[in-house]
Amino acid sequence: MSLKQTIENSVIETDATWLINEIKAYDSELDANMIRSAYNFSMLKHDGQLRKSGEPYFLHCQETARILASWGMDYSTITAGLLHDVLEDTDTKPSEIKELFGQEITQMVEGVTKINKISFMDIENQAESLRKMILAISKDIRVILIKLADRLHNMRTLEYINKDSQQKKAQETLEIYAQLAHRLGMERVSAELKNLSMMYLDRATYDKISDQVNREIKIRRSQIDEFSKILRDSLLEVEIQCEVEGRLKDIYSIYQKMTTRGIQFENVYDLFAFRVLVNSVNDCYASLGIIHSKWKPIPGRIKDYIAMPKTNGYQSLHTTVIGPRGKPIEIQIRTFEMHTVAEYGIAAHWKYKEGGSWSEEDKRFMWLRQIVEDMQELRNPRHFMESVKSELFPEEVYVFTPKGEVKVLPHGATPIDFAFSVHTEVGFQAVGAKVNGASVPLRNELKSGDIVEITTRSGAKPSKDWLKFVKSTRARSKIRHWIREQERSESLKLGHDLLMSELQSRRINTKGIMKSDGLLNVAQQLKLSSTEDLIAHIGYGKVSVQHVVNLYAPETIEEKSTEIEPETIPHHPSGGVKVGGVGQPFVRFAKCCNPIPGDDIVGFITRGRGVTIHVADCKEILGESERILDAEWDIQQDAVYPVEILIESDNKKGLLADLAAAIAKEGVNIESGSISTENMMAETNFTIQVSDLAHLRKVAD
To answer: What is the pLDDT of residue 564?
Structure first.
């Protein structure tokens, strides 16, 4: 008898009828046979396994499916929910699931299994863990919905595991899964996960706030009911059909407000809020008008998330008014449909016709799409973590283009962030900005309601300094990508020059060498994929040119000529310095040691920035011998070099002017000067221009 027949005929069919009936209530396309088969298959595979509580393990799979059904998920997702642990905890193979339930469900189960194997508590590998999870989610968003249901049931039954495991699981839930639920618009799920996490992370505080809340409910219950009735009757009088409920803020959000504002429970005035549910958007705005005509609104506390929804799809009108007893009362107004979306987020209105993939126009997934794009570009774990955190935990501002289009940006965003949200090229070519008609710096912080206009110039380029103040992941990743491309271009030029110089110094024919198999073989020996990567690595200083040529032509190691023929290896003067084979645009002087003629010098390959000239014994380049090149002075007539000098002396009136005059008498130009004093002593700093070391000594004497 085949496995499929075993499942279909199994007496374990103890019964999936309750689950089928729940799904039938909202999913007319239900495949009851598939649900029943998955139910029985999971029960059979987990037979004999127990949870820490002593209950049959299958109970967890059943409750995960129950949670998914309560969210109104499609039957395919619930099928995968029933099966979500069979690959990890039983001898089931993916091929078995595929044979019985198809490719779509197999992929979802595999996606959840991959997430289950990820630990976010390992700080060193946290970035890689997030990459794996985002990759699993991006293939089918329903994977994370199954995982959230799985985690929610596990958190509800966390009491049965040891304290250390409880705290690790709770911390992971608070930092990752509760935030993901919030980002997906699933506020009810997010709130429950946060409350459950707090129970295990700080039980004393949780119990204290819970007791205070319960006492407050007993005191205010009649007031809440009274205000709810007044509010409901006021709207019914003008024929607005509605439901009104007074609700208590959840314990974790009360705790957050107390800690962030540094206040006691007694000073949290908005413990209770009122929610008004109506039939249409017109009724929402009409209700707001009625409420404001009856109770005075508090300025600055009115928010319209219907006209400008949050990025997770949340829509509602928020207002805070002065209530009957002179205390502030928060009121939220939304349609019944908006309320369902606010409670269950993406689960409430996800369309499954595309097998869990998102559509390009669906703005709810812009943040996830952005993270997936960043995965391709951000290899640095710290940069990737910055990207994920900014997308998962956003505080948003809403600004407008001159044509009235809304742009949602992170808190603290600048005109540069705005420019990149319009188009990458607008960001690259931005040279100025106007906010509400007035010119502002590109680092100016934007506020909700600002109208932003960007001035561009063809040929303009982004600045590395922009990374110091941009806030959006998109802007940051695009700027970094551009900088990397520029650095690679410079490194390719430098690497080519260095390689040609080394080859010529060993009298190796360079004709056609860039396309030769020999260089490609060297690249492969060094675990690089192409000759271009090899040249870039030379330019970056990641591999020495001598080592590359040794691998390319080992027979020349002992034969390398110490004399370089001037006609074949040109030296380019660059500020009075010769570096063999390196063109003028790549040479600059180090500020750490300020080399001047007379100092022994070397060239140092600065990754992505060419060659920097250092004093030979500069501490900044110790231990970097593979990146050091021979260099020598090539003194040009009338050439001068900036040098910083420090003069310590007694403080007296006019000291700076006297010292400047004495230096000027030596025919030395002063670029800048400053003085600081303490306890009648003075330290005077000058940057002066000298021709060489002897000139500097003369000035010093």
So the answer is: 36
Joined together, the tokens standing for residue 77 give 């997702």
pLDDT digits (tens, 9 = 90+) for 220-242: 888 888 999 999 999 999 999 99
3-state secondary structure of 81: helix
**Torsion sign, CA atoms 198, 200, 205, 209:** positive
- Predicted confidence at residue 119, as pLDDT, reads 64
Instruction: Compute the distance between CA of residue 495 and CA of residue 500 in angstroms, rounded to an integer.
Output: 9
Instruction: Please report, for residues 39, 67, 73, 77, 311, the alpha-carbon distance to residue 23 in angstroms, rounded to integers and kept in the order given.
Output: 14, 11, 8, 11, 29
Nearest-angstrom CA–CA distance, 607 and 540: 4
Tell which wins on pLDDT, 419 or 378. 419
The backbone torsions φ and ψ at residue 328, rounded to the nearest 5 degrees and listed phi first, read: -65, 140
Specify the amino acid at residue 31.
Answer: D
313: left (phi over 0), alpha (psi -120 to 50) or beta: left
| Amino acid (one-letter) located at 226 | E
What is the pLDDT, as a whole number, of residue 191?
Answer: 92
pTM for this one?
Answer: 0.57
pLDDT winner (highest mean) among 104-108, 569-573, 629-633: 104-108
Q: Which domains does the chain have, with CATH numbers?
A: 3-201 (1.10.3210.10), 212-348 (3.30.460.10), 369-482 (3.10.20.30), 516-588+600-632 (no CATH), 641-700 (3.30.70.260)
Helices (H), 46-93: 58-70, 75-82, 86-89
- Checking if the pLDDT of 377 tops 60, the result is no
Helices then strands, counting H and E runs in the chain, come out as 28, 19
Q: Is 579 exposed, middle or buried (0-12, 13-18, 19+ CB in 10 A)?
A: buried
* 3-class DSSP state of 285: helix
E strand spans, 323-475:
328-335, 396-400, 406-410, 430-435, 438-440, 452-456
Which residues belong to the active site? 88-89
Q: What are the tokens at 373?
A: 């794009």
Q: What is the pLDDT of residue 426?
A: 93
Q: Note whether 346 and 340 are within 8 A (CB).
A: no
Q: pLDDT tens across 495-525, in order?
A: 887 788 778 777 888 787 888 888 888 888 8
SS3 for 636? Answer: coil
Q: How confident is the model at residue 7 (pLDDT cuts 50, 70, 90)?
A: very low
The Cα–Cα gap between 44 and 98 comes to: 17
Using 50, 70 and 90 to split pLDDT, how confident is the model at 294?
Answer: very high
Quote the pLDDT of residue 609: 60
Distance CA 207, CA 270 (A): 20
Contact 230, 321 (CB under 8 A): no
More reliable by pLDDT, 354 or 140: 140
The answer to whether 551 and 508 are in contact (CB under 8 A) is no
The pLDDT, as a whole number, for residue 569 is 32
Long-range contacts of 662-669 (CB under 8 A, 24+ apart): 663/688, 663/699, 666/698, 666/699, 668/695, 668/699, 669/640
State yes or no: pLDDT of 5 exceeds 70.
no
- According to DSSP, the residues that pair with 410 across neighbouring strands are 396
Q: Is 330 left (phi over 0), alpha (psi -120 to 50) or beta?
A: beta
Sign of the C-alpha dihedral computed for residues 59, 62, 67 and 70 taken in this order: negative
Q: What is the pLDDT of residue 185?
A: 80
Max CA pair span of the chain: 106
What does the H/E/C string look like for 348-372? HHCCCCCCCCCCCCCHHHHHHHHHH
CA 535 to chain centre: 32
Sign of the CA dihedral 463, 468, 474, 475? negative
**Using alpha carbons only, how large is the chain's radius of gyration in Å?**
34
- Report the DSSP pairing between strands 452-456 and 430-435: antiparallel
